[in-house]
Amino acid sequence: MKKQLKFIVNGNPYDIWIEPRLLLVQVLRDELRLTGTHRGCDSGTCCVCTVNIDGKAVKSCSVLALQANGKEVLTIEGMANGPKLHPVQEAFVDNWAFQCGFCTSGQIMASNALLKENPNPTREEVQHAMDGHLCRCTGYNMINEAIRDAAGRLQAQKSEEKAK
Amino acid sequence: MKNIIFDFEYLAPKTLEEALTMLSQYNEEERKVIAGGQSLLILMRQKLITPQYLIDIKGLSDLEYIKFDKKEGLKIGALTIHRAVELSPIIQKEFSVLSEMEQNLSNVETRNWGTIGGDIAHADPCGDPAVVLIALNARLKLNGPSGERTMDAEDFTVDFFETALQPGELLTEIQVPVLPPNTGVKFTKYNQISGDLGLASVAMSITLDKDKKTCSDVRIALGGVAPAPIRAKKAEDILKGKKISDALLAEAGQAASEEASPTTDIQATDEYRRELVKVLVKRVGVEALARAKKA
Amino acid sequence: MSEYSIIGKPTRNVDGPAKVSGEAIYTFDMVLPNMLYGKLLRSPYPHAKIISIDTSEAEKLQGVKAVITGKDTPGGKYGLWRRFPELCDQTALAMDKVRFIGDPVAAVAAVTAEIAERALDLINVEYEILPAVFEPLEAIKDDAPLLHDDISNNINITRHVEWGDVDEAFKNSDYVREDRFIYGSQATASTEVHNSLASYDKGTGRLTVWSSTQSPYYLQLGLADALKMREGDIRVIKPHVGGGFGGKNSTMPDSVNAALLSMKTGMPVKIVYNREEEFTCTEHRTAMNLAVKMGFKKDGTIMAKEFKLITDGGAYTALGPTALYLTGTYATFPYNIPSYRYDGVRTYNNKMWSTSVRSFGATEAQYATEIQLDRAAHDLGISPIEIRRKNAMTPGYEAPGQYKVGSCGLLECIDKVEKRIKEKWTDLSKDEGVGFTTFAYMCGGIFNWIDTPYAFSGAMIKVNIDGTVDLFTQASDIGQGTNTVNVMICAEELGIGIEDIRLHPADTATTPVDLGAWASRETMMNGNAVKDAARNVKEKLIEIARMKLGENIVYDLEAKNKRIYLAIRPERGFSYYDIVKDAIKLNDGEPIIGVGHYTPHRKGMVSPAWAFGSMAVRVKVDREIGHVEVKDVIVAHDCGQPINPLGVRGQVEGSVHLGLGWGLCEEQPTDNGMVLNPSFADYKIIRTRDMPQIELHEVLTHEPEGPFGAKESAEGAVGPTAPAIANAIFHITGAEFSSNTLKPEKVWRAIREAEEKAKKPAKR
Ligand SMILES: Cc1cc2nc3c(=O)[nH]c(=O)nc-3n(C[C@H](O)[C@H](O)[C@H](O)COP(=O)(O)OP(=O)(O)OC[C@H]3O[C@@H](n4cnc5c(N)ncnc54)[C@H](O)[C@@H]3O)c2cc1C
Ligand code: FES
Ligand code: FES
After folding, report:
1. CA C401 → CA A25, B2, C216, C227, distances in Å?
2. Domains of chain A, start order
């Protein structure tokens, strides 16, 4: 029997009826066609599917969609401001922080949550916060550098906004 | 990719009472409780668990709390997420070992959604919270059809993925008594990959006499080396009432490794896991002792 | 310093904005109207005869649109070694028997993936279980069960290479040692699983397939063979691909069966593997047993080498023979080996077949070589660096009848790393040690086992009236950055900007053939083809410019910085954009098209060029529990002229990560043919906390064969990583290893053994 799911995704309210067995990642990808969130495993062990729920990094494959009822979900599609990439996204491009790009959405969403909690993380802090993320391509170091670069950009952006 | 391919009815109680009523309406085989689902959903995707009714207790906000009181000690609601335990200032101050344990439990993503109660109830012999809680002499509160009861954390897990929960019961609260004076607690787990489930883990709580020399009490808990987390009582006896030295800790490590009953799997042999216990008990002991001296 | 305006400059990935915004589309993300979901029923037995298959119940399930078994297929045999029909041993579905746990037996298409999966449970297969064999040394025995009726002793293919007088050289050696090694396999573990979407047009009889592949061309050929169709009637499109690492070269059952189901239903069909299928039923690194003998002079000079190899091939051929050939070749790199004898055998057995994983052949051969060298150096009283320097290959080196080395910066790499170790690692504790290794890697393969009549790479360019350029190439960007490299090469050659070029990659219907992304071939081979096509266009433009300038033919013209001008008087010239307009208008409006291609000539049998390098790791060992921490890595790498330094660094970082995995924690244990750890929970991959930083030094050389002097950078650094670690542990603890995957327990045991040995008085 279908159940009602009311939640906000990337700022847009949704009110849909879904099968209770659906995982959040299925609803995002298959129902809302937000395919930027990928899936890498069947065991909750790669974090490729990471999104933000109420600002926190969560694996969308390990959450029943109905558990997101009443919550605010942010996916990779909600990061950019129109055509303008988010500073984290910019930093990922400038630092060659992806290769195949399949894990990248998850990496960026986790970085986004991390930088909200810790605006100026050290290399070790980034390593600790990003440890669940499997990347088969990059060897992680360039991602770590991108995240710290993004931290700088976000801070610069903030002080710019303040100055205004 | 694997999804859940069977249908079930989804029930989301708002209060503990409602949840307990729902639990009593269906029998054990038909229903399952989901908290954070970090472990359960994987099993459902593998068709290892196929409930007809899924009772979602994640929304029970009345079971999401961390309270501390100098007399009563620490109380953690079962639905508190791992990350809240990790970041709680009062836990960092009074029971830093819990926060340290959480820092290496899986990853931020798991900790942001998974609950400490779910972890204990899941009863994975490699689960971390149970091991630390046993060393901390914690008790668990269970609520069920016949009311409320408490039990020692030590007695909760009875076998691989099996607990002392009676049909219709929920784990509702974790109670940790105030640490006695001059007590130091340390936990460590080892795996080749950081943050991974431990091949073996050790938690030790050492309480020293007033003179801060003799060990008046000690609790040693081992994880991942038996069907359930266990206490290494022989090892404790070696330390109790003595002035702890490196040699004595090595002896305790040897005893603990004999108390363990690990199995061999693709990750490691039983022999190696015993060796880990031996070494980790020694290392954890050194640090717990240092903490006790500083406490 | 550089004469280039684009080559050699750190350049953003052309796919970057799409990949960081979730807009890049992978096959995994694709859905077509009326699309069906396919699933494969796989064998639960390692070896069994199929007696009967009853699909009637599955067909009755509501939502199921088609169920097929081997009988419903054209039965075409396929494989990558197409030059040898007997090595094309795969079929879409099992015809009469299954040969490994996971061999596909039937395929279902349904309106949802869930229904397709439920339908699998309703298919009834009756098997007659046959005796099975799992280990190479068992498989070649006379009484072993045979996998393929006409292949005796399960010998898939053999290889012999020899030069010099090996026996004589061993006789003249002062020191000879023989070591044995045994390796397990390694999963490719791309984050995007294998998946394909096929759409058959009944009206035209043409098929379109989108697939997560490393080589659209190989897939096109594989499908043509399997489906008994003309390759031109099959269009393969490679969208963005979430990693390949060698596991996506072969035509796999997902593509063939999606195609068959689409042909049967007339609707598009998509098959997506799950992670368990990915671990158990896709290609992995070849497990093998090695026996290696080396002879030295007292001063460490290598006199001779003998190498015997038997590889664990699994049920089918695929790219396995290439692994066998390459291991035998790489066993001679990067050293001067005056006499060499290699005998390799690839065996069939009842497991998933093995083939190529990033740096295949090299990783396996180098582990043995580099460990053996350190043991020899230890016994001979020479330093590990000296023994390597003494034997290092130099430019122009030639292995008789096998391969030729062009540029080679190996000695410079050794010097660089040695210098950095001395400067940087001055504070080693007693539990820390250094391992030093060298490496070489190919820049694409030469031997034409796929049997293509085409050049190995091609490219096409169309120049539009406004000067924008459409670049068509089949090169497969699977994350390594080939798209960016090709655009950079095109821009440099034409003297225009990256923003002027629109790339149309990897669609067999619109791009000339390229063999795909393997053996680090794209920069060398496709890069050359793109450069050739751009040169072709440039010549046309220069002709117009020359005409307008009215200069004599002796004056060279150049295209650079969006201008075309006289080389000796740069101020005399025109804007590139104006010349393009003139060229089209003056030529009756004929479009400007350039074509280019590349095939290696007279470069031996293996590769047109070789990259070199050396590596050092700083390792800390916890002797009590055997934990190994890799604290720091230094790499010096001669990749010729780096095209994009950002991309080069990315490739080296990723290579080291994969090498660490093979060396320390990745393995695929099996029990009676069943993979025991088919998930990311049990298959251990290094995450960011355990990843060391890497100090990378580019040693510049100019490779005459490469585009702008470029060579490989995508795989070389995998191989030296694991032996460097093993060597470091050896130096600190005396522990010796004869296998990879140095899990803590293995290290702990080896240290205990070394301690025991040290206690006993030496025999010699
Ligand atoms: C990749 C990964 C790595 C992990 N690594 C670790 C690790 O290193 N250490 C570690 O300790 N754990 C680890 N875990 C386990 C995980 O952290 C816990 O199992 C998880 O937090 C369980 O909590 P949950 O709320 O998600 O429980 P769920 O998955 O919802 O439930 C787990 C089980 O407990 C039952 N249950 C839940 N709550 C209650 C309750 N209040 N009363 C009665 N029964 C209940 C459920 O019915 C179910 O059987 C890992 C998990 C993953 C996916
Ligand atoms: S897909 Fe791997 S953790 Fe979600
Ligand atoms: S970029 Fe390919 S998996 Fe991370």
Report:
1. 56, 51, 32, 38
2. 3-78 (3.10.20.30), 87-163 (1.10.150.120)
8 Å CB contact between C761 and C737: no
What range does the domain containing C646 cover?
356-444+607-763
Question: Does any ligand 3 atom lie closer than 6 A to the CB of residue A103?
Answer: yes
Residue B3 lies in a domain: no
Q: Are C480 and C358 in contact (CB under 8 A)?
A: no
Is the pLDDT confidence value at C202 over 90? yes
For the domain that residue B288 is a member of, what is the CATH number? Answer: 3.30.390.50
Is C580 part of any domain? yes
- Closest residue (by CA) to atom 4 of ligand 3? A135
The total number of structural domains that make up chain C = 3
Runs of H (alpha helix) within A38-131: 87-94, 104-117, 123-129
Question: Do C455 and C639 meet the contact criterion of CB atoms below 8 Å apart?
Answer: no
pLDDT digits (tens, 9 = 90+) for B115-165: 999 999 999 999 999 999 999 999 999 999 999 999 999 999 999 999 999
Name the domain boundary from B133, B158, B176: B176
Structure tokens, B140: 């668990």
Neighbours of C498 (CB within 10 A): 16
User: What is residue C473's three-state secondary structure?
Assistant: strand
Q: Would you say residue C391 has pLDDT above 60?
A: yes
Burial class from Cβ neighbours inside 10 Å (0-12, 13-18, 19+) for residue C577 reads middle
Look up the domain containing B121 and give its range: 62-176
Max distance between CA atoms of chain A, in angstroms, equals 54
Together in a domain, B171 and B189: no
Q: What count of Cα atoms within 13 Å lies in the side-chain half-sphere of residue C465?
A: 7
Q: Are residues B187 and B272 in the same domain?
A: yes
C427-444 pLDDT, tens digit each: 999 999 999 999 999 999
Yes or no: say if B175 and B67 are a contact pair by the CB < 8 Å rule: no
Phi-psi region of C625 (alpha: psi -120 to 50; beta: other; left: phi over 0): alpha
Contact B118, B43 (CB under 8 A): no
Q: From residue A62, how far is each of A114, B33, B125, C234, C349 by CA, in Å?
A: 19, 15, 21, 39, 38
Instruction: Mutate one of C275, C691, C745 to test the B interface: name it (highest B CB count within 10 A).
Output: C745
Is-contact C368 C161, C-beta < 8 A?
no
Which residues from chain C sit within 8 angstroms of residue A43, using beta carbons?
275, 679-681
Residues of A in contact with B107 (CB under 8 A): 47, 131-133
Mind listing the pLDDT tens digit for each residue in B175-231?
999 999 999 999 999 999 998 999 999 999 999 999 999 999 999 999 999 999 999
CATH number at residue C627: 3.30.365.10
Angle, CA A67 vertex, CA A64 and CA A71 arms, to 5°: 130
Chains with ≥3 Cβ pairs under 8 A against A? B, C
ipTM score over 0.85, yes or no? yes
In angstroms, the CA B123 to CA C91 distance is 46
Q: Output the six-digit token pair for C288.
A: 């093998």
- Protein residues with CB under 6 Å of any ligand 1 atom: A 44-45; B 32-40, 78, 82, 105-106, 110, 114-115, 117-119, 121-122, 127-129, 165, 170-171, 197
**Any residues with CB less than 8 A from the CB of C56 and at least 6 apart, and which?**
none
Do B50 and B136 fall within a single domain? no
B276 part of a folded domain: yes
> Looking at CA atoms only, how far is residue C432 from chain A in angstroms?
21
Closest CA to C245 of A158, B227, A102: A102
Residues of A within 8 A of B58 (CB-CB) are: 67
Question: C251: which residues sit within 8 A by CB, 6+ positions away?
Answer: C78, C80, C90, C218, C219, C221, C222, C223, C225, C226
